[in-house]
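thread: overnight batch results

M.L. [08:02]
morning all. the overnight job finished for the chain we discussed friday. pasting input first so we're all looking at the same thing
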Amino acid sequence: MPVVTPSPSGQPEPGAPLTRRTSWAEAAAAADAAKPVTHVPAPTRLPSSAPGTQTDTSDAVPGLAATDTPSAPSAAPSETPAFRRTRPTVADTIAESPMPDFISSPGLFVKEQKPRPRGGVRGAIYSMTGGAWNLGPGPKQRQEEELGRRISRQLQGSYNTAVLSLKGGIGKTSTTVGVGLTLAEYRGDAPCAIDANPDSGDLVERALGEGIYQQSSPRTITDLLENIESIDSLTALSRYMHHAGRLHLIAGEQDPEVSDSLTAEEYLRIRKLISAYYSVALTDCGTGVTHNAMSGILQSADNLVIAAGYAVSGAKRARSTLQWLASHGYEELARNAIVVITDKDEVSSRVDKDAIEEHLAGICRELIAVPHDRGVADGDLVTLDVLRPDTRRAYKEIAAAIVDGYR
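M.L. [08:03]
and the structure it wrote out:
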């Protein structure tokens, strides 16, 4: 729009119509109407001529002499001037920004909710306020939840833990049942327990109760071996197993004439079959480390649980077991073994429990004590519901230590 310069006197030029200017826009419109814009054609770029020739000025701009021919610009602008900014569009911004990970980073979009406290003062406050005040779980509850996470860790492959001792009656079978039931409670996949005790083992009786076991079809590890070639599915295998909840068990042979006939090769065949359907297996080995199947059990074991008692003789036998293993080619198993001391007989106060624990703790990966509990000491059915909280926690610690050893 051309610039309108008001006359010095502030009066309109002679002959121009009077215009009332009430605003800048109206004044500009009035000026445009009074003085139309004359479009001047752009100067024509003249062709260059050789020296000494006369330039044709017929197409020159009127009013300009030949000598006043405008010079051509040195170069036409090929790019957008530097002072002009281009603002990114919303689409450009979205395309250039990283895609948020809705799966691995849910906390970016949803506020993390504190777990509900169970029991204690924190649980009481939560219940009284209807959940309005959530102080979160206390230290003990957090420890229990951490044990559960360790036990339920997903595994790649199949693993086997052998439970053994050099002396009977010190909690070996009750530990196998208690830990097996704990694994079944926390793991998504059912565990399997194998009774490889050559001395008429009672693993299934301790898990089911003797009455229920006698009423069921008493198929044993011997029956499984006789038909092992025909088993090609978990359904077929289940016909030779017993079930204590989600814990699946293979019963030991009760006939004393054949109970000691299980060989290392036969055990390895059973272990190979079990590994196709179960990620965790426990093997109750019986007493001693020299019976026929023991070499096969140790060969296929990923870690060991050594059962011991608070009696001085029990502690010595546990140490002797670890020394025998280390000197017979099983040094890695001995180093990573878990020693479980069960206070089965509620030993005399004259026994220095701390000294026994210290004596064994330095030669194994972990030592865990199971307190005295009549639900274990009676030698009958072992169920988690009737055990003391400290006993259940001990079995959880053993189960977590077992799964930690599966690498």
